[in-house]
Design brief:
The chain contains twelve helices and ten strands. The chain is of the alpha/beta class. The termini are close together. The structure holds glyceraldehyde-3-phosphate (G3H), 1,3-dihydroxyacetonephosphate and zinc ion.
């Protein structure tokens, strides 16, 4: 049991037709809920940290909490930087013990994206750390970057071979119609993903691990829980689970989930306070929140990722 890179996990996931869950972490209860679920189901696991999470909780706290989770569960866990915006943050995470970093140059020109990604790969590989790059732009909000639906762009399969060859990147995030946050598809429309692009990318990059961002399903049960307890979320629509399952049987080896965790946690805490308006001990409302994160992650591992028993 250790903090490991994703190389072996992705190789097995590709061959086995399943995907590894990459869950965003921000505090102890979220880390415990996720890792206990993966531990119970013996599932391989990626914990990912955004720059916002690093600012909120501090790098050292998150590292020590994940170290504790490795010891507690006996699992090998990948510690990954989510959406690294530039070389400096990637370097800081490599130097600080992460086993994997994402350099997100998706907003740059193709040439600039290659240049910054290659610079990160050269640095990271030298220290035994793996790198995820991105081609194509997802709509939605991540940290300070807010990409409107009009400015989003599907990945062009014609670019993927050159990108991977020129950068030496270990995995590639592509844009096929998912987006960040809770509002992924227009209410009243049928969610659709460009599986044709995913399949074409897989033909161009045989055996190469593909990453799907913006992959929360925005589980209606938790949106309803938020709204039944004073929340006012408009129609929130995520990626249907059967589509994620299909993507996992194809080249997608890493599926990123954050919004579903946020909804489960917030819905549970709202419900708790509605039922116990006089309580004020954080342990009382964080216990059911952590329980529901554990149940949510078990559901994902079993019904969406197909990664149970693969650790
Ligand atoms: O892709 C974005 C992730 O959900 C992280 O969100 O940047 O608000 O921590 P954050
Ligand atoms: P969601 O907002 O769909 O959970 O996506 C999370 C993500 O892609 C993190 O990088
Ligand atoms: Zn993302």
């Amino acid at each position: 049991m250790a903090m490991v890179t994703s190389s072996e996990m992705f190789r097995k996931a590709y061959e086995g037709g399943y995907a590894i869950g990459a869950f965003n972490v921000n505090n102890m209860e979220i880390i415990q809920g996720i890792t206990e679920a993966a531990g119970e189901l013996n599932a391989p696991l990626i914990l990912q940290v955004s720059s916002g999470a690093r600012k909120y909780a501090k790098h050292v706290y998150l590292m020590k909490l994940i170290e504790a989770a490795v010891a507690d569960t006996g699992l090998d866990i990948v510690v990954h930087l989510d959406h690294g915006a530039d070389f400096d943050i990637c370097k800081s995470c490599v130097d600080g013990g992460f086993t994997s970093v994402m350099i997100d140059g998706s907003h740059l020109s193709f040439e600039e994206n290659i240049a910054v990604t290659k610079r990160v790969v050269d640095y990271a590989h030298d220290k035994g750390v793996v790198v995820e790059g991105e081609l194509g732009r997802l709509a939605g909000v991540e940290d300070e970057v807010n990409v409107s639906a009009e400015n989003s762009a599907y990945t062009d399969p014609n670019q993927v071979e050159e990108f991977v060859k020129s950068t030496g990147v270990d995995s590639l995030a592509i844009a096929i119609g998912t987006s960040h946050g809770a509002y992924k598809f227009k209410p009243g429309t049928k969610p659709q993903l460009r599986f044709d692009i995913l399949k074409e990318v897989a033909v161009r990059l045989p055996g190469f691990p593909i990453v799907l961002h913006g992959a929360s399903s925005v589980i209606p049960k938790y949106v309803a829980m938020v709204n039944a307890n004073g929340g006012q979320m408009p129609d929130a629509i995520g990626v249907p689970e059967d589509m994620l399952r299909e993507a996992a049987t194809l080249a997608v080896c890493k599926i990123n989930i954050d919004s579903d965790l946020r909804l489960a946690m917030t819905g549970t805490i709202r419900e708790y306070f509605n039922q116990h308006p006089d309580h004020f001990d954080p342990r009382q409302y964080l216990t059911p929140a952590r329980d529901n994160i554990r149940e949510l992650v078990k559901h994902k591992i079993t019904n969406v990722l197909g990664s149970a028993g693969k650790a």
